[in-house]
Amino acid sequence: xxxxxxxxxxxxxxxxxxxxxxxxxxxxxxxIVRAKEKGAQIITxxxxxxxxxxxxxxxxxxxxxxxxxxxxxCANVLIEEDLYNHDYVEKYxxxxxxxxxxxxxxxxxxxxxxxxxxxxxxxxAMRMYAAAxxxxxxxxxGVTQFGQAVDVVKGLSGLALLTGNYGRPSVGIGPVRGxxxxxxxxxxxxLPNVFPGYQSVTDxxxxxxxxxxxxxxxxxxxVGYMLSAIPHLVKDGKLKAFYVFxxxxxxxxxxxxxxxxxxxxxxxxxxxxxxMNKTALFADVILPATAWGEHEGIYSxxxxxxxxxxxxxxxxxxxxxxxxxxxxxxxxxxxPMHYNNTKEIWDEMRELCPIYYGATYEKIDSQGGVxxxxxxxxxxxxxxxxxGNKFDRPNGKGLLFASEWRPPLEQVDGEYPLVLSTVxxxxxxxxxxxxxxxxxxxxxxxxxxxxxxxxxxxxxxxIEDEALLWISSRRGRVITRAQITDRANAGTVYMTYxxxxxxxxxxxLEHVDPISKTPEFKYCAVKIEPISDQLRAEQYLQEEYSKLxxxxxxxxx
Amino acid sequence: MEKKVExxxxxxxxxxxxxLVTRNGKIVRAEGAPGRxxxxxxxxxxxxGWEFLNDTKVLSPRLKKPxxxxxxxxxxxxxxxxxxxxxxxxxxxxxKKKYGPDAIMATGSxxxxxxxxxxxxxxxxxxxxxxxxxxxxxRI
Lengths: 557, 140
Ligand code: SF4
Hints:
A: alpha/beta; Dimethylsulfoxide Reductase, domain 2; globular; B: three-stranded antiparallel beta sheet; two-stranded antiparallel ribbon
């Protein structure tokens, strides 16, 4: 995020794009409500009538898969109605002419057949956005989980640049992401193209610095593979071994059948985790680790805040902390590695990363947290980026960049007439091994999860509320339970992805954004079928659930 | 005697501060603590998300010993850490020798382990395996 979570409530306008804070991040949702109480205007773009949509001054019910067209229409209005900040664009941005050229073809009227949003609503929204003294854009997985995602993020950033909404508190754009430490894993270089601190692996000086610190002759200079490429890489014989650390791709990735086939074909699968999960069923060796609560370290919050999490209890069983397991592996492979505690590791990393250098454990503890960049020991950290409107580009200017809209890959047809979009569940988390083992959270919702469906579609396909039904795509079929709600738009159904029996990723498609490689979790074609014998269906569900739990617990006994 | 440890919620990027309250080495409850983003408040996940630490086996059991199998048709059996590490490292070195370092891929974890563990993982992959094939589920 360019700015901080607490700043949300002091903004004068929140533009909430494809982000359902109430279900994903309740504490962020609270800031949105508070902003409204303090008089902020709220505009929401979402195909569903979400909680944010409900409290909004303006709701743009967008057709699923039309994000880029709508963002371009927004830019079109800002420019053609002359609502943008000329002075700011002149001084702090570049690329305006070609940007203007592209978005000129996207008047709200011209793209209404794509976006499904009334042109007057788009115009009104942009007049409000441009007039607000401080405006903050919040976006979520409704943007990032499409085949065209990075382009849309750049497009949203363009709206903030056009209106000068950067470089001070309560403005900018904020992706509020899924898992707790996604920001942190990026920060410390768990990406195929950068070392810790966002230092490029293709930069020879950077490589030399890390090689020296790590005591090796050289480091690889080729950008690595992305996770979503695994099924293809395995099929092509390029990938032979997979070391899976604290993730469950056999549950959370798109096109699960493809992922399982890859896991089966690999010559070696190492799993390091705290619970038995679906991926571990394919492993050759499983290394048991300590869990949150049993070890300490630093997490990064979504707004770049380093915070210290601590150990509360002793682990049970013959388990080890993750970094100790990695050290054992390194030593066994002939590379001496030894750490006594997380602080030693943190200090090694700080020394190598100019943007984190001043964020010591001591400072994190005494301040409660430190937001990077924090370049020096006497620097307090950085609540908002781009102060003085200097951007992270060689010439310091913000880039205005527009892309043409691309339709989602898989279109509905006679056989698969509905769009499936995957969403998240308020009480649960990712692949659910942690929350699913919390009895209180389990009582909130349990297998097989729900399919949210509009009442018109339910009537059309003969689906009753709370009834079990089959849903299938070209890739698979699962059982799920209907929840009839007119918060869902007609023509699209929604499933949460935490469920093991009702696993919606049996249905999704491995079509990825060309840059971020995020699969298109938000759009594939499906059909639904009612089940006449509900009693048998309930039995089937219980049997499948018991079988799965047995398969997961059997290896441990 | 109750003890309180201040920590950070592991369930979303809001990064709420909370106290884990323990009695006789077991967690008994969580309560909101004054963090920058949450100011003492928590959602349900923050309040009850610690329960899995008591190994409830509601959904799946905690892993407590290294598990191994020498062929995929076998069931898993418990093994020592020495044997698990020996097996995993030897097989990785064989694969590296036969197909090159880029035939190995690893993930980081965007969940409980934290920044230090992830730092060490990417160091292991880059400096020891010799590849940049490391990525995480940023996408879910
Ligand atoms: S308490 Fe809720 S909002 Fe806060 S970090 Fe945990 S999951 Fe997120």
